[in-house]
Structure formats: structure tokens, C-alpha cells
């Protein structure tokens, strides 16, 4: 029985899919195709890899601290148990992420096959994906490094390529190919030549290999990264399923991708690398034009999500989150509507959305980081109105969940229960409120909101004061380990 540990890389902010994707809620956690997020789809695909000879363990996720509860909650929603969450204090690209995963996988004397995939891809044909990855697992169990190569259907210039022996010495029906070289993103003419020549595949960033093989290869090609990762791992702190490498030690690790650190050095080395072709309707949804490509379309080529009306419009993408969006007489247009921001773009220039995000970053606008509706481990809040010295929020607290014991230096809060039951700590008093009842939290008073019931609690919160920023909070106790 081959022991397999799925590894889902959840880093990245998906800036080219703004305004739906934001730093606080990036694209991998969005439902862009179907009713499940890209992350949930990835978790389901990996969980389905098991058969009579393959045992699949609960997944390891690698993410930032801010997304740990979002990821674990989304796994719970699809009935998949979380194995381990490796929480990176800062981004250091994929090579350190995979190294920490390998160290975690081997800490109990085991050496599983790691199936490593980004969290932000789509697969149109899951059965073909399963067959290809199971083939890669069988090969990796023998000690090989295996990469999945997507069969190209067009001369794409946005992906790196894998050059194999297919078309030279290998038979056309080969399902495990030798990798001859990795090729950088080509120009249009070169991409067309690759497609005509054959033997070239898109690099999808999916790897299958034993944990020990990765660590040996990294030690050979990048011993500096190997040593720095080991130092950060030694300084780790663990809280149940959450593992945090040493913060300062992790920040000192050279930032490098799996490809540059190891994979590109493997052909012709003591670590030969194999490739299994993947012809499963793969897309990485890197920008809005890629989302348009994978969505169902009407007879005019329009792909619409949400409340949308059009007339005499063609090849458009509309993603409406909150209100009716109408198009009249336009073509090749992208419109993305959210409660606090609207994007209108030429579909052929969707990659340039990143320039808008850069402007948001430069001016420190919240629309780059958070949606109006913000998810928290205890539930969510939606900032429905704001003006001079006041802010109104709609807050939902999950059953049996609790906010932190906290206080604010600059604001008072009025709470009105609209659904469920609230247990409220207000200074030295503890009171229970039900629908249509309210209370007042004075400025500087220590307080806490808890839902003791088995149904969601909803309240309206009215904040008043001189400063209403989210950073005006002092936590004394917190169930989720937040400072």
C-alpha cells in the first residue's frame, strides 16, 4: 500500500482577479466555477486518489496565518478532515513551502509520497486527472521525481513549458516520459513552434515525489535553502494541527520556487525527472479572461454569473455579486461587481488588472485587502454603512462560537439582536439577549459576544467614536490564538 500525503499550496493573493479576489480572501477560496471554491475542488480531487493500492492521508495545507481558519472551515464544509496546516509568517515561494511539508511528513519516521498542487486550478475532467496522478504516484513510489505536464491545445505564451523526449525517441503512447529540459515562457512564434514540433507540455506546478527524495535533491542543489528550512523547522511552534515555523528563521530563508531550486537541475543529474501527461481540461484561472474560457456561455459567447441582463452584447464576462448588471451593445468586456468595487476591463487586457491593485496598494486603500463582508473564524461581519463618527455592521456568529474578550480605545458600540440568542460580557456583567433586545458597550469597556445556541446569531452593531478602524482592538482572551 502506497502512503500518499496530499499537499495543497494556498499562498498567493490572485491580484489579477480583483475585485473578487483580495488579500484577505484570495482567489483560491472563491467559487469561480460551480458551487465550491477552487481550494475545495483541489481538496476533493486529491481525496479521490485512493484505490486498492493507494492510501490517501488527510491533506497538508500551506498558507499564511490569516487564512488558516478560512481553509479549515472550507475543508469542513466538504467533509474533508484537515491533516496539518503549515503557517508561513511571510511568503518565501514554493521551495521552502514544500521543504517544510517534507520535514513534517517525515517527523514520525514515515516517508510518504507527496502529491503537491496549487489551490487555484480547475480541472474539467476529474477522472482523467485521477488516472494521471495515480500513474505519477506509482512512479514516485519507486523513488522518481514526477511532474504533471498539461497537454497544450494552443500556443500559449503565459506558461512555462516542459520539453520531453516525446516525438524524438519515445513512443507516442508513452504515459511516463523523460523530462529533457524546462523552458521559460516563450514568445508567440516560439510557442507555435513548440506546438508544431510536439513533445512540449505546459508546466502546471504539480509534483509527485517522496518526501525524502525532495529533501535529498534540495540538499544537493540548494543546500542553503535546505539548511535555512531546517533551522526554521527546529524553531517551530505547534498548536494542535497548526504548525508555525520560527518567524525570524523562516524570514531568513531564500525565496525560491520549486522549479528554480530543484526541478530545472534534475534532467541529466542523479535525480532524473519523469513527466506524466495530463489531458484533463486544466486551467490555472490566472486572470479574468481565463475565467471566461472555462465558464459556460450563451449563443453570443457571453459568460454571466449573478443577476445579469444584456442586449446585443458578445463575448462578455459579467460576475455580479450584489445587484443587477446590464450590458447594451458591447463586446469583449469584463464587468465584475462587488458591494464596494466595480471593475470594467477589455477582456484582452485582463492581465493589466494588477496595475489597478498596485495603485490600491500604493494609496493603502482597504479595497485591495478586504471585502465589505469579512470572514472571521467565529463567523463574519458586513460593513453596511459608514459616515462621520459612525459605522454600521451586520454580524453573524456561528453556533457555539465566541468573539475575543476585548476592548476599544476610541469607540463605543450598540448591539441589537435580530436573530438567535446572544450571551454578552459587558464589564463585570454577563447578560443574555434575544431578538429585538439591545445593549450598549461604553468606550474602553472590556466585552465579549458569544453565541450559546445551536443556530447562527445575527446582530446589528452601531459603532460611534473618533476612530473606527479595525486595528482599534485590545484582546485579552481569544479562542483562535489571535493577538
Give a structural overview.
This protein is of the alpha/beta class. The chain folds into 3 domains: 2-283, Spore Coat Polysaccharide Biosynthesis Protein SpsA, Chain A, CATH 3.90.550; 296-359, no CATH class; 373-477, Sandwich (Jelly Rolls), CATH 2.60.120.10. Helix content is 22%, strand content 33%. It is built from 11 helices and 31 strands. The strands form 7 sheets. The protein has a 6-stranded antiparallel β-sheet, with no helix packed on it. Strands 7-10-8-9-13 form a 5-stranded mixed β-barrel. A 4-stranded mixed β-sheet has the order 15-17-19-20, covered by helices on one side. Strand 26 (422-426) and strand 27 (429-433) form a beta hairpin. Helix 3 (94-105) packs across helix 7 and helix 6 crosses helix 7. The two termini are 43 Å apart.
Please tag this protein with its features.
single chain; 483 residues; alpha/beta; Jelly Rolls; six-stranded antiparallel beta sheet; five-stranded mixed beta barrel
Topology:
Layout: E1 2-9, H1 38-47, E2 54-56, E3 60-64, H2 68-77, E4 84-88, H3 94-105, E5 113-118, E6 122-123, H4 126-140, E7 145-150, E8 161-164, E9 177-183, H5 188-197, E10 200-210, H6 211-221, H7 223-234, E11 237-239, E12 242-244, H8 247-251, H9 258-261, E13 273-278, E14 282-283, H10 288-294, E15 303-305, E16 308-311, E17 317-320, E18 325-328, E19 333-337, E20 342-346, H11 353-362, E21 373-376, E22 379-387, E23 390-397, E24 405-407, E25 411-419, E26 422-426, E27 429-433, E28 438-441, E29 447-450, E30 457-465, E31 474-477
Parallel strand pairs: 1-2, 1-3, 1-5, 3-4, 4-12, 7-13, 15-17, 16-18, 17-19
Antiparallel strand pairs: 5-10, 6-14, 7-10, 8-9, 8-10, 9-13, 11-12, 19-20, 21-22, 22-23, 23-30, 24-31, 25-28, 25-30, 26-27, 26-29
Helix pairs in contact: 3-6, 3-7, 6-7
Amino acid at each position: 500500500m502506497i502512503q500518499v500525503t496530499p499537499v495543497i499550496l494556498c499562498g498567493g493573493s490572485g491580484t489579477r482577479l480583483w475585485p473578487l479576489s483580495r488579500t484577505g480572501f484570495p482567489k483560491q477560496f472563491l467559487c469561480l466555477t460551480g458551487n465550491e471554491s477552487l481550494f475545495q475542488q483541489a481538496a476533493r480531487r486529491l481525496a479521490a486518489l485512493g484505490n486498492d493500492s493507494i492510501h490517501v492521508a488527510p491533506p497538508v495545507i500551506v498558507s499564511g496565518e490569516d487564512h488558516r481558519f478560512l481553509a479549515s472551515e472550507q475543508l469542513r464544509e466538504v467533509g474533508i478532515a484537515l491533516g496539518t496546516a503549515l503557517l508561513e509568517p511571510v511568503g518565501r515561494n514554493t521551495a521552502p513551502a514544500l521543504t517544510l511539508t517534507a520535514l513534517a511528513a517525515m517527523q514520525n519516521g514515515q516517508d510518504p509520497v507527496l502529491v503537491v498542487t496549487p489551490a487555484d486550478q480547475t480541472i474539467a475532467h476529474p477522472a482523467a486527472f485521477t488516472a494521471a496522478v495515480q500513474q505519477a504516484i506509482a512512479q514516485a513510489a519507486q523513488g522518481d521525481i514526477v511532474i504533471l505536464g498539461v497537454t497544450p491545445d494552443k500556443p500559449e505564451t503565459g506558461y512555462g513549458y516542459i520539453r520531453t523526449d516525446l516525438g524524438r525517441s519515445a513512443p507516442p503512447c508513452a504515459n511516463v516520459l523523460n523530462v529533457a529540459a524546462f523552458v521559460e515562457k516563450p514568445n508567440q512564434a516560439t510557442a507555435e513552434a513548440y506546438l508544431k514540433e510536439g513533445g512540449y507540455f505546459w508546466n502546471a506546478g504539480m509534483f509527485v515525489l517522496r518526501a525524502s527524495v525532495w529533501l535529498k535533491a534540495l540538499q544537493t542543489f540548494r543546500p542553503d535553502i535546505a539548511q535555512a528550512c531546517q533551522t526554521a523547522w527546529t524553531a517551530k511552534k505547534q498548536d494542535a494541527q497548526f504548525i508555525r515555523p520560527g518567524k525570524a528563521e523562516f524570514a531568513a530563508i531564500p525565496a525560491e520556487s520549486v522549479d528554480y531550486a530543484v526541478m530545472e537541475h534534475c534532467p541529466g543529474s542523479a535525480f532524473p525527472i519523469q513527466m506524466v501527461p495530463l489531458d484533463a481540461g486544466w486551467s490555472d484561472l490566472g486572470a479574468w479572461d481565463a475565467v471566461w474560457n472555462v465558464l459556460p456561455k450563451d449563443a453570443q459567447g457571453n459568460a454571466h454569473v449573478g443577476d445579469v441582463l444584456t442586449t446585443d452584447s458578445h463575448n462578455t464576462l459579467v460576475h455580479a455579486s450584489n445587484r443587477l448588471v446590464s450590458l447594451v451593445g458591447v463586446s469583449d468586456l469584463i464587468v465584475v461587481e462587488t458591494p464596494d468595487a466595480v471593475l470594467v476591463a477589455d477582456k484582452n487586457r485582463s492581465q493589466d488588472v494588477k496595475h489597478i491593485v498596485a495603485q490600491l496598494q500604493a494609496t493603502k486603500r482597504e479595497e485591495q485587502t478586504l471585502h465589505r463582508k469579512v470572514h472571521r473564524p467565529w463567523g463574519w461581519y458586513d460593513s453596511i454603512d459608514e459616515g462621520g463618527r459612525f459605522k454600521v455592521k451586520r454580524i453573524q456568529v456561528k453556533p457555539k462560537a465566541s468573539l475575543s474578550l476585548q476592548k476599544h480605545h476610541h469607540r463605543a458600540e450598540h448591539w441589537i439582536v435580530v436573530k438567535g440568542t446572544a450571551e454578552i460580557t459587558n464589564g463585570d456583567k454577563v447578560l443574555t439577549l434575544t431578538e429585538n433586545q439591545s445593549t450598549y458597550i461604553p468606550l474602553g469597556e472590556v466585552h465579549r459576544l458569544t453565541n450559546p445556541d445551536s443556530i447562527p446569531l445575527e446582530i446589528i452593531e452601531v459603532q460611534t467614536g473618533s476612530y473606527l478602524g479595525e486595528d482599534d482592538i485590545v484582546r485579552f482572551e481569544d479562542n483562535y490564538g489571535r493577538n
